[in-house]
């Protein structure tokens, strides 16, 4: 199952119409997991925040969100580099939703209440790769801080 999804997500000759909505959401979830793992501290706080984001994005219940995250953890572990990974999302997800993905990424980056250079750097890289400009990324960061009840650090 996961091998088939990896193939659908990362085959260069893929027709975007073959990627289902659920496949695209697993790709987004995998990107969130990649971010959370980027500082080598992937704990419960980040896992719960990913579940919260996934539930909010598509109206999933807690069990469905956790299941999607678990699938994303397996996909992310075998996925190619971030550039190719984000290209897949950029080709298949509308700009407004990509901006929301950047907001979600900032939420994950700050879920543990700490600033981490690796996570911030990855969010900025991904924003550029997804075609989200610096201004929109900064606004997304502020929305994430507001969602988390944190001040701009």
TrEMBL record:
Entry superkingdom: Bacteria
Ranges for domain Co-chaperone DjlA N-terminal: 26-142
InterPro entries the record matches: DjlA_N, TerB-like
Pfam family for this entry, one: TerB
Protein name in the entry: TerB family tellurite resistance protein
């Amino acid at each position: 199952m996961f091998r088939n999804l990896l193939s659908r997500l990362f085959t260069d000759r893929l027709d975007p119409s073959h990627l289902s909505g659920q496949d695209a959401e697993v790709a987004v979830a995998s990107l969130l997991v990649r971010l959370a793992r980027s500082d080598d501290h992937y704990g419960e706080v980040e896992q719960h925040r990913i579940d919260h984001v996934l539930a909010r994005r598509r109206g999933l219940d807690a069990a469905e969100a956790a299941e999607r995250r678990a699938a994303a953890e397996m996909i992310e572990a075998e996925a190619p580099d971030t550039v190719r990974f984000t290209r897949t999302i950029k080709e298949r997800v509308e700009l407004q939703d990509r901006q929301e993905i950047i907001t979600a990424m900032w939420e994950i980056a700050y879920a543990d209440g700490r600033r981490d250079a690796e996570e911030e750097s990855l969010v900025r890289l991904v924003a550029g790769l997804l075609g989200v400009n610096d201004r929109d990324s900064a606004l997304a960061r502020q929305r994430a801080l507001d969602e988390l009840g944190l001040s701009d650090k």
